[in-house]
Amino acid sequence: MTEPPMSIPLLEVTGLKTSFTTPRGTVKSVDDVSFSIAAGKTLGVVGESGSGKSVTSLSIMRLVGRGGGVIDDGAIRLNLPGQPGLDIRALDEKAMRKVRGNDIAMIFQEPMTSLDPVWSIGDQTIEAIRLHQDVSKNEAREKAIEMLRLVGISAPESRVDDFPHQLSGGMRQRVMIAIALSCRPALLIADEPTTALDVTIQAQILDLIRRLQKEIGMSVLFITHNLGVVAEIADKVAVMYAGQVVEEGPVRTIFSAPRHPYTVGLLKSIPMPGGMRVDDAGSRRLDTIGGMPPNPLALPAGCRFAPRCSLAIEDCHKAPPPLVQAGDEHGVRCIRWQEVSK
Amino acid sequence: MIDFLLARIGSAIVTIFGASVLAFAVLRAVPTNPARLIAGPFANDEVIAQVTANLGLDKSLPVQYLDYVTSFFIGDWGFSYSAGQPVLSQITERLPASAELALYAFLFAFFGAVLVTVLVSFLNSRWLDRFLRLLSFISVGVPPFWLALLFLMVFFERLGWFPGPVGRGPAPTGLYTGLFTIDYLLAGDFAGFGTALHHLALPSIALALGPFGYLVRLLRANLLDIINEPFVTVLHAKGVAPISTHFRHILPNAFLPTLTAGGLILAQLLGGSVLVERIFVWPGIGTLVIDGILRQDYAVVQAFIMLSAIIYIGVNLLVDILYGYVDPRVRRS
Amino acid sequence: MRRLIAQLAHDWELLLGVVLFGLIVLLAVFGGWLWREDPLRVDILNSLLPPDLAHPMGTDDVGRDVLARFIRGAQVSMGVAISVTIAGTLIGGTLGLLAGLIGGWFDVVVSRIMDAILAFPPLILAMAVAIGLGQGIVSAGIGVILAAIPWYFRLLRSEVLRLRTLMYVESAQALGASSFRLIRLHILPQTTSTIFIQASSVFGFSILTLAALGFVGLGIQPPTPEWGTMITEGLAYALTGQWWLGFFPGLGIFILAVSANLIADRLRDIYDPKSGARLSI
């Protein structure tokens, strides 16, 4: 496989702003978000619901319009190996449809409702294959069976004609993955793919994604609210809060030396298995994050986390903090990051 | 699949039994003397006594019910005193006229509603959608017989575009099906076909408008439900074109309730033609039934009521089976 | 209620429905007092007069004032439709509640009866009852009630079954709450809006079906004016230029049915946004 030079990431998102118009005002769901994903690597995007992580992924797919959203600003560049870079925002709808499902594929949170109930799973896989590849119906069917086998569905020759309601949630998510990967995309966006599944099934699906990522050599944008899952699968992490990336960096850095009070709070609020040094001093008051995320229609003037932050000082409420470099590849949006420790 | 069929047929038979008991209870077991009802207001005591005996009204209720049901199923539907004719031959004679009217009304209502609603939802225009909603309310609320009257006043009397209240128009020479349009087509007479359609247009549209509005509301609501389903987002993420998403995925998912309702509407239209036939002097069952009511000659009306229920249940059953064939979730559960 | 009034301000469809409905209600209540013509007074010399100031809706074939008959017709139609709706709600609703609460054989028997009723097209069923009980407005009304009962029955029965499975009702029952308490405290408050929405739909259905029965000769008996019967009476003159005989009563039916349906649909969207597909007529 020819890999692009390491200096050019597969996906570059710069200054992305996406808003939704509601009857009560404009909601800036994504506000100046930047990140990049290197080829073959995994970026985990973490945040509470409403933090803008799903809207970010839908923006990359240019699917926010269905919900009444608009991409206001920013650049989304897709650098496929051996091809000139694609400016996603500038593509016309037809060219964008060629990107969707082919170069960038997506799997979603709800396997129970993500499949068309009146199409067989085989037909839904075949549909994806024939949209992007010039193959006959029979060839597509063979490929579909092969994909179903690849995602661990036993006896795919007979199950290919099953309908979604005949499968369990875990099986349906496998089918979703088969459909998403049937065209060997360069980037897989996984939007909380394990949240709706039982714990035992979650681990299987994560394993599957990791295995197929290696096989296909694709990058993964993994969206979740679960830091534990991120620790397992991601190379880099971006923590989102109220539409912004508040901290980003390599997964080890984020877990061992978080510099944003929100990240620290998230880490404290979940029981983590060993491997982390626990520093008792001064950390008790951050055990749970008090308060609620801000109303998206009335965001605070200063730091968006300040109202819930135990370290907030007067300056925090005055101006929005810039994203500053706290270390190698480690960015943090907090003016007191040097005082933050676990 | 066999189990599914048997279950549906079994439940249809139970319903027919229930409906026949209900019809019997309402029409025969009421306090008013059914013999007087059947014989009419001008009958003397002798006639009434004879009718009482003919009807077996001196027997016990269960026996009467059995008589009632068996005579209905062997085609002995009574005798129309005012027409001097058995009810069965009266009804079979006039059935094609009503069936043709109901059929065209159904075609207008069903395909009109599906076409308009799917198109409007695909175009995704706020204004078109509002207009369609309002149109559906108007359609559902308009009394068909009043609309028929307005149609005649405007399109016949004022504008002269359509024939007046003269029924079906000239009959084709060879009657095979009894449906004029089809018989003309079979005879290769396209001018005659046009004439038959011309006569059908106003009454069938007047009859179709209510069901049209109902189907628009139903399909529109179902389409909106499906459009907001997560799997539609997934389809977009796969790169499926909107037109394909709409017509190959959303429509089949949203269509099943409309299909069910469509079947029931076809069955209802057969009975509902009572409301417009008279205005267009249409020689169908509806006119027969109203004449029966006005002359208090109820044998025809009773047969019509039971027949309507059986057609209704039969169509219901067919739709159920069709439903199971189309929707994998029903078939296999 | 306050929510409803606030809703009226920016929901033009609901507003339209309420205004049109209110118009006919006002006409039915105050019309006879404002317009003092006798709807039954025959005046052969002034028959078939077109609408003018003396007779805003013209006169009919025996010289009766059509506006006065229209107003009386509004009273009759609204009165019967309201009674029918209330009776249907009470009977169908009670049966549904009982079937849901008692279950067992009662549920099976009543459900089967409802299936039998639903096996008839509603208009045909109403016709059958109207004939069986003898011509007249009461028989027609009973026919429409019978046709409307299964809708309430199914609605209430499924609501009760749904609410019963919810934890709080189950625990209330475990605590020994009587069925009556259960209905009053837990089930009725939850279902009032649904019942009201259903009632608006049924009202529209009653207006149309009663008029249809009147049209085929099964409604109120002459000379009392009723909108459906008035259309039948106007038939003979429709194509000789005297359009007003049949036009105005039909307009009345149309306005009432459309406004009732509009109100029902808007209320459904406001109170029960997820059941957009549940249509009854």
UniProtKB/TrEMBL annotation, chain A:
Q: Is-annotated flag, keyword Flavoprotein?
A: no
What's a GO cellular component annotated to this UniProt protein? plasma membrane
Annotated PROSITE patterns: ABC_TRANSPORTER_1, ABC_TRANSPORTER_2
What is the annotated localization of this protein?
Answer: Cell inner membrane
Q: Output one GO MF annotation.
A: ATP binding
Q: What is its main location?
A: membrane
User: Any one Gene Ontology biological process term?
Assistant: peptide transport
Q: Where is the ABC transporter domain?
A: 11-267
Q: Which UniProt keywords apply?
A: Amino-acid transport, ATP-binding, Cell membrane, Membrane, Nucleotide-binding, Transport
**Where does the signal sequence lie?**
none
Instruction: Read off the InterPro entries from this record.
Output: AAA+_ATPase (IPR003593), ABC_Ni/Peptide_Import (IPR050388), ABC_transporter-like_ATP-bd (IPR003439), ABC_transporter-like_CS (IPR017871), Oligopep_ABC_C (IPR013563), P-loop_NTPase (IPR027417)
Q: What's this chain's function?
A: Probably part of a binding-protein-dependent transport system y4tOPQRS for a peptide. Probably responsible for energy coupling to the transport system.
Cross-referenced PANTHER family:
DIPEPTIDE TRANSPORT ATP-BINDING PROTEIN DPPD, OLIGOPEPTIDE TRANSPORT ATP-BINDING PROTEIN APPD
Assigned protein family: Belongs to the ABC transporter superfamily.
* Descriptive protein name: Oligopeptide/dipeptide ABC transporter, ATPase subunit
What species was this sequence derived from?
Sinorhizobium medicae (strain WSM419)
Automatic annotation (TrEMBL), chain B:
Q: Which domain of life is it from?
A: Bacteria
Which UniProt keywords are present, listed alphabetically? Cell membrane, Membrane, Transmembrane, Transmembrane helix, Transport
Q: Where is the ABC transmembrane type-1 domain?
A: 95-323
Membrane recorded as keyword: yes
Would the keyword Transport be found if you checked this record's keyword annotation? yes
Q: How does it sit in the membrane?
A: Multi-pass membrane protein
Q: Which PROSITE patterns match?
A: ABC_TM1
Pfam families, A to Z: BPD_transp_1, BPD_transp_1_N
Extent of the signal sequence: none
Matches recorded under InterPro entries: BPD_transp_1_N, MetI-like, MetI-like_sf
- Where is this chain's protein located in or outside the cell? Cell membrane
Primary site of residence: membrane
Which parts pass through the membrane?
5-27, 101-122, 134-156, 196-216, 254-280, 300-326
Family listed: Belongs to the binding-protein-dependent transport system permease family.
Q: What is this protein called?
A: ABC transporter permease
UniProtKB/TrEMBL annotation, chain C:
Question: Cross-referenced PROSITE patterns, in alphabetical order?
Answer: ABC_TM1
State the GO CC annotations.
Answer: plasma membrane
Q: Name one GO biological process term.
A: transmembrane transport
**Sequence intervals crossing the membrane:** 12-35, 80-102, 123-153, 195-220, 243-264
CDD domains, A to Z: TM_PBP2 (cd06261)
What positions does the domain ABC transmembrane type-1 occupy?
Answer: 78-264
Q: Which residues form a coiled coil?
A: none
Entry keyword set: Cell membrane, Membrane, Peptide transport, Protein transport, Transmembrane, Transmembrane helix, Transport
Protein name, per record: Binding-protein-dependent transport systems inner membrane component
